[in-house]
Amino acid sequence: MHEYKRIYRFSWLEIRKFWQRPIARLVLLLMIFGPIVGEVLLAQLSPRDAVYPRVTALWFSADMLMFISLATVVLSVLSLGIDFDLGTIPIILSRGVKRGELILSKVIATVFSSLVFGLAFIGITLISTIIAHIRISDIPLSEATGSDLLWRALGAGCVIGLVNFVLSTIVMLALILGRSSWLGMLAGIGTFFLDFFVGGLGTGTILGMEGAFRYTITFHAISIMEKLFPSDPAISLPRAWAEQGLANPLQAAMILIIYGLAIIILSIFIFRRQDLKVKN
C-alpha cells in the first residue's frame, strides 16, 4: 500500500509538471476550439454532413483519434525526456525514488494527460454536433445517435488512452536506451507512422510474418473503433481487413494493454541495470 501511495504522489507531481508547460495548455485549447470551428465551417459549407450520423465518419474516425494520440506522444517527450536531457535523473533517484516508480509515474502522467486531451476533444465534439443537429436536421437526435452514444464516446476516449499508453512506453524505452529527447521523439513518431503504414498496407508478408497488420497498434485500435462507430468497411478499411475481419474489441483492448505492460517491464529491467554516471 505504501508503494502505491508513493507512485500516486510521484504521478501527481509529474502531471502538475506537465500542465505547467504552455504547450500543453495550448494543445488543450486546440482540442476544445478545433471541433467548434470545424463544426461551424462544416455547417456552413455542407449542412447535411454536419449532423449525425454522417459527422461520426469524420469526428470519430480511428484515423482522427490516433492522430490525436500522435500529438500527445510528442508532448509526452516533454514529460518523459526533460529529466534525461537536464541530467536530473540521479538527483531524483537520490531522494529515495525507485527507478521503477519513476518510470511508472511518468507513463501514468502521460496517459492521464492524453485522456484529458481526448475527452476534451470528444466532449466538445459531441456538444457542438448535438447543437448543429438540433438546429439543422429534422431527424430526432435520439434516432440519429442511438441511446448508447455517451458510452461509445467514452470508449473512443479510451482508445486514445490505450494507443498513447503503448506509444508512451515506447518513448520511455527509447529514452532509457538513448537518454535523449530527440531519440524518444523519433521512436514515438517513427513507431506511429511505421505501425500506421503496416496496418494500412493490410496484405502480404512482412519480416516473415503473414498478416503482419494483425499485430499492429492501428489494427487493434480500429477494431475497437469500428465496434463503437461502425463505418462502411469498403471505404474505411484496407481490403484484407474487410475480408478477414477485425479483432474482437475486448481482445484488442487487452492486447494493447499487454503491449504496454511488456514494454514497461522491459524498460524497468534495463533501467535498473544502467550506470547513470555513464552517458550512452
Structure description:
The protein is 77% helix and 1% strand. The protein is mainly alpha-helical. The protein has one domain (2-271). A two-stranded antiparallel ribbon has the order 1-2. The mean pLDDT is 81.
Summarize the structure.
This protein has 280 residues and is mainly α. The protein is 77% helix and 1% strand.
Number of DSSP-assigned strands? 2
Gyration radius, to the nearest Å?
A: 20 Å
Shape: globular
- For the termini, the CA-CA separation is 35 Å
* H/E topology pattern: HHHHHHHHHEEHHHH
For the sheet with most strands, the description reads:
2 strands, antiparallel
The total number of structural domains is: 1
What is the average per-residue confidence, as pLDDT, rounded to a whole number?
A: 81
**Order of neighbouring strands in the sheet with most strands:** 1-2
Topology:
Layout (H helix, E strand, L loop, with lengths): L1 H18 L2 H24 L10 H4 L2 H25 L2 H6 L4 H38 L4 H5 L3 H30 L2 H21 L3 E2 L2 E2 L6 H12 L4 H4 L2 H6 L4 H23 L9
Antiparallel strand pairs: 1-2
Helix pairs in contact: 1-6, 2-6, 4-6, 4-8, 4-9, 6-8, 6-13, 8-9, 8-10, 8-13, 10-13
Keywords summarizing the entry:
mainly alpha, 2 strands, 280 residues, 13 helices
